[in-house]
Amino acid sequence: MYRSYETGELERPAAILPVGPIMQLRGLRKSYGAVRALKDADLLIRPGEIHAIVGENGAGKSTLIGIAAGVIPADAGTIRFDGENIYGPNPTRIRELGISVTFQHPALAPDLSVLENLQLAAPHLKGARATDEAERVLFSVAAEANLVPLDRQVRDLNLAQQHIVEIARALITRPRVLFFDEPTEPFQQADVRKLFDRIKTLRLDGVAIVYVSHRLHEIDELADRISVMRDGEIIDSRPAGEITAAEVVTLIAGRPLGQLFPPKARAPGETAIEVRGLSGAGFESVDMSARAGEIVGITGVEGEGQRQFLRAAAGVERRRSGAVQVRGEPVRGTRSWAARRAGIGFVSDDRHAEGLFLSLSLRENLGIGFLDRVARLGVVDRAKESERARSVIEQLRVRTESIETPVGELSGGNQQKVLIG
């Protein structure tokens, strides 16, 4: 939103009115075995417009973007750019046309430096001016806390910094169409604001932007048009001013907002977890408690220790001092197995690096979470493991052909469900 110079009120700037779409996705279909990820999906992408795509985990959003980027082959359908069909799309051809994509999981070369990763996407970055241009693009999207030296290896960056480099790599190609797939997931507010300012500038410059996010407040601020996906189909597409947030949620879930979430507990129960004087790398003497039926939020700007605190409380990282109690009983030990035995679960913010075994099946990944209940003397009862895995998949509505499907073949949303499961 921008503040009107004449009235002083906040208003959404009008998108540049195009003659027609610069890019069209028509009748896209994609199946993974018996699971249909996309069913005749159509999308019109216009210059100077931010087109938001929303939907539940596993609705097909990332598959749609993967096909548009040329990294996933469609089973059927066509991609048109500037009025012509793109035959046999691949990442190089897509990028040459002026289409760039930022992926939900940054597709970077970990052994190369930040500058070298940018140069892979933009061969024009050569000579003495390459450093200046690369630094300028990084500065345009990164808040001060996440600015990184160009000679730093990508493997040494945190998740938010990797996303910054992923976005900069897309921008440095000077795209005409730009896809964002959940770009703000690891960001703090300062980075979000910097990115949004850049996106709004791109729109005014006539760039066509497709923005995928679960965060409806982001959609409300940015979008000129909203398309809703459910079960692999785009079921509705309207100008943002013609659809309310409640209607979007109803379309996403297939039922009214009031039926989606149970009411919050009015009288939380006994103390479920209590942390006293916890200290570790990046945080000192933190106290916290949470009661049964209560959700406690922990926040702060990036680098203030909140992530390290959670990891230490869950035993994922060592703590220097302090104590953790679960339902009045001390957690005996400081490692993850002790916390887990006490009843503490932990969901990592980087599911690929430390949350899932991507080459293993759903059954094996889920089984790790309840191994003590399906194994005896080191021997796994496959029938019990499979039964429990199917139950979790059903409860969380994981879209998969089989419990034997490798987790790496699932969409990002379904991978997250497996991690939580």
Structure description:
It is a single chain. This protein has 421 residues and is an alpha+beta fold. The protein is 33% helix and 23% strand. The strands form five sheets. Strands 8-9-10-5-11-12 form a six-stranded mixed beta sheet, with helices on both faces. The longest helix is centred in the middle third of the chain and has 16 residues, at 189-204. It starts with a strand and ends with a helix.
Helix/strand/pairing category:
alpha+beta
* Number of extended strands: 18
Cα end-to-end separation: 38 Å
Q: Mean pLDDT score, rounded? A: 87
Overall 3D form = globular
Largest sheet: 6 strands, mixed
Tally of alpha and pi helices: 15
Percent helix: 25-40%
- For the biggest β-sheet, the strand order reads 8-9-10-5-11-12
Radius of gyration: 23 Å
Strand content: 15-25%
Summarize this structure as a short list of keywords or feature phrases:
23% strand; alpha+beta; 421 residues; 4-stranded antiparallel sheet; 6-stranded mixed sheet
Could you give a quick summary of the protein structure above?
The strands form five sheets. This protein has a six-stranded mixed beta sheet, with helices on both faces. The protein has a four-stranded antiparallel beta sheet with strand order 4-3-6-7, covered by helices on one side. The chain is built from 15 helices and 18 strands.
